Amino acid sequence: MIHARGLAATFVTGKGRRQREVRAVDGVDLDVAEGEVVGFLGPNGAGKTTTLRMLTTLLRPTAGTATVNGFDVATQSVQVRRSIGYVSQAGSTFSQALAGDEVADHGQLYGMSRRAAVARGRELFTSLQLDGLWDRMPKNMSGGQRRRLDIVMGLIHDPTLVFLDEPTTGLDPQARANLWEHIAALRTRRGATVFLTTHYLDEADALSDRIMIIDNGVIVASDTPENLKSQVSGDLVHLGFASAEPVSRAASALENVGATEIETDGSGVTARVRGSAKVIPGLLRELAAGGDALEEGDALEEIEIKRPTLDDVFLTLTGRSLRDAEAAVDPTDEETDR
Ligand SMILES: Nc1ncnc2c1ncn2[C@@H]1O[C@H](COP(=O)(O)OP(=O)(O)O)[C@@H](O)[C@H]1O
Ligand SMILES: [Mg+2]
Question: Model pTM?
Fold first, then answer.
């Protein structure tokens, strides 16, 4: 559905001697198959929006090629636009019109009849829980309602390929969870292919069949969330005992099963353990049995196993946590026209 090779976008910012080149997207290859939900993850400024704008024909690539739904983004932009849905990061700018009229106009822009656009719009209002808001001006809606209205606009012509740029940024947790359900339903109910960007790790994890991580304009990983997480060196396991006595024994038992980053502290031990679900039960049996079995008072009091998160993956790949990476974005970067 989407194929890109060497896709690149360079912006020139500043004037005169302060002029410099920003390689916003620096040679991206990507392939998205029909029916896939792909999460395009990266810190602010990584190049997500710029990539999306090239794939949706809103920005001409500086280099490289891409086809979307079989159409070339450079030479067949009309066909590309007709065949996709796009919800921009900024959202739509609305006039004083009523939401329903905006939606119906938008459908007609895609060649739908007024009647069909209204019918489809009403159906989408219901499924996105916007019932009763057809005659409301978008400026009088909540942020979450407006964002869902953006999504109605993106879906009005029933596209089989949908691009969503940070669909949930700025929404409260409940509205986010709600939107996740709708995005998941796009695929299960309509068989749509979804390409969404996010800087929320939990969101990428929950929604995506595959995650592509972009950093500084370069794709640094592309795999299922599970595979990405399994590349990180194991689950974080913490065992806490009633006393300090069994700690050293637990630490060496962990070492025997190949655990790394073993750290003891008072009456607890923490370590990274690959495949902990398979390893930990045996390890506990070993601690409980044997010559110097756990005495009363040495008992295991707590056990905690944390699966690696996508933040661990990002850290492993880039040496920075996603949060630090965001903090590093220069907010004074001037935006100029392409
Ligand atoms: N029109 C533009 N002019 C100059 N620089 C831009 C422009 N658009 C984006 N950039 C720069 O390109 C980089 C990538 O931006 P963007 O694709 O918006 O990142 P993301 O969507 O991942 O947050 C950033 O450094 C940004 O400042
Ligand atoms: Mg963006």
Answer: 0.79
